[in-house]
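Practice problem 4.
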């Protein structure tokens, strides 16, 4: 039973320290969010799971971390300066401003009128100025990156040559991106500052690109499943030609059921695009247009690849799986949400997070906080577990309340230290999902928990 709507997660997230509205002491900042003590852990765990899956467990992917602010020319030649636009319309009645493609039935979402201005483009790259320059100095203009991908393309040769890579291989990057969204909203689904996990997979121009898109779609479905997102809440959207980005010949979006209460429940979780050789060739000094003119007179490098077996030089094509950290976290939280009734008839919220994503892996709880021996033993167990897994100590309530609190934040195990523990050097381990308890020797505890916390494996398919 996933969450019935996003609002349920917004309220849980604030109540339990996952996500807070940003800048609240100054009245907030529209659609900006801060990740609290548990939120930062779950984001880190998602990024760590992704990195481990792609960069460590596979043999064909390297990682990088490029600058957020790149030379402005990157965005000129990538096409973002000219085309990274939303189309805006103004309501003549209430003066509201909206994205033209989000208007339903031609009615203003604020006042219901249907009197619109002509649609006009609005570039959504966030601007900044570099250095101590005059406000109107055009040479100081720079952008905060709207995608992490370009930092990968401009480093293609650096990575390929230093790591002695042959095609096919990929480069992965995770980090912040920024877009001046006209209508941000729906909690962390659409914000102006967000995090992406992008991977550019470089292949020969003769590769079977469409099959590779399918391959990566399948791989990501497996990955999302390993994170606990059920397949029935995912939907594949084949992006029609008229909606494709300027660089794409084919894109499949993996959509998640973020709005189960609505008639149209789906919103994009990630996209997998065949970006052709557009990006590497557009940043290259030697690429010529149809009239034999250099398409990029500013570039000092040629990002082509020499293929030893065929003795051919070419610009590799790219298959790009581009996912959002924040949207993955939201999908994970919604899918993990469930309610259970205890034997007193009370409804309890349980976040059935996959163990690898749970912010806290084990909570160590003393049954009697006024018994120094029990408290001392519980604190010592917490300290001994901490080097191998994230553990917390909590004695701020009765045991029922402490269990409920840990269930609600998705902690897989509660470890209770009681009077008997002082005698038999054993503790009670309670399972979050079944509420079953078992007695475990303290000396076996770390190994016992580690075994049960192992991530669900992602089956690796052969690359085609
Ligand atoms: N490099 C390709 C690219 O950036 P995209 O579909 O625009 O493609 C990829 O973005 C992913 O980044 C999206 O599927 C989504 O998960 C995330 N994303 C994009 N814009 C976002 C926003 N304003 N807020 C939160 N996540 C966003």
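Answer key:
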């Amino acid at each position: 039973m996933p969450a019935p709507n996003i609002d349920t997660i917004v309220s849980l997230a604030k109540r339990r320290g996952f996500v807070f509205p940003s800048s609240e002491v100054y009245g907030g900042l529209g659609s900006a969010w801060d990740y609290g003590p548990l939120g930062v852990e779950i984001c880190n765990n998602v990024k760590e799971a992704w990195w481990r899956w792609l960069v460590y467990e596979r043999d064909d992917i390297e990682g990088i971390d490029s600058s957020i602010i790149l030379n402005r020319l990157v965005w000129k030649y990538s096409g973002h300066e000219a085309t990274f636009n939303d189309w805006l319309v103004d309501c003549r009645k209430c003066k509201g401003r909206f994205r033209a493609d989000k208007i339903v039935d031609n009615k203003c979402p604020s006042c219901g009128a249907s009197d619109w201005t002509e649609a006009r483009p609005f570039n959504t790259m966030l601007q900044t100025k570099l250095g101590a320059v005059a406000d109107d100095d055009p040479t100081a203009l720079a952008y905060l990156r709207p995608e992490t991908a370009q930092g990968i393309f401009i480093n293609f040769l650096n990575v390929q040559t230093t790591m002695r890579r042959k095609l096919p291989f990929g480069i992965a990057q995770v980090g912040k991106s920024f877009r001046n969204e006209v209508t941000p909203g729906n909690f962390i689904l659409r914000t102006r500052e967000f995090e992406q996990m992008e991977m550019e997979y470089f292949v020969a121009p003769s590769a079977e690109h469409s099959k590779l898109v399918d391959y990566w779609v399948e791989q990501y479905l497996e990955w999302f499943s390993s994170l606990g997102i059920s397949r029935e809440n995912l939907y594949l959207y084949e992006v029609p030609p008229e909606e494709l980005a300027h660089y794409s010949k084919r894109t499949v979006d993996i959509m998640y059921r973020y709005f189960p209460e609505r008639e149209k429940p789906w919103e994009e979780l990630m996209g997998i695009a065949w970006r052709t050789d557009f990006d590497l060739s557009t940043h290259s000094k030697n690429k010529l247009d149809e009239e034999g003119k250099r398409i990029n007179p500013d570039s000092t490098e040629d990002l082509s690849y020499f293929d030893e077996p065929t003795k051919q030089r070419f610009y590799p094509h790219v298959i790009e799986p581009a996912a959002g950290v924040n949207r993955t976290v939201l999908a994970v939280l919604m899918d993990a949400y469930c309610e259970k009734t205890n034997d007193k008839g009370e409804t309890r919220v349980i976040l059935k997070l996959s163990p690898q994503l749970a912010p806290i892996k084990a909570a160590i709880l003393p049954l009697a906080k006024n018994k120094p021996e029990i408290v001392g033993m519980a604190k010592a167990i917490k300290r001994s577990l901490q080097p191998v897994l994230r553990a917390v100590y909590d004695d701020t309530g009765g045991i029922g309340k402490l269990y409920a609190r840990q269930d609600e934040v998705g902690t897989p195990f509660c470890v209770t230290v009681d009077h008997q523990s002082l005698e038999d050097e054993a503790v009670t381990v309670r399972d979050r999902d079944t509420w079953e308890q078992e007695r475990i020797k303290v000396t076996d505890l770390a190994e016992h928990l580690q075994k049960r916390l192992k991530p669900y494996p992602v089956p690796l398919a052969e690359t085609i």
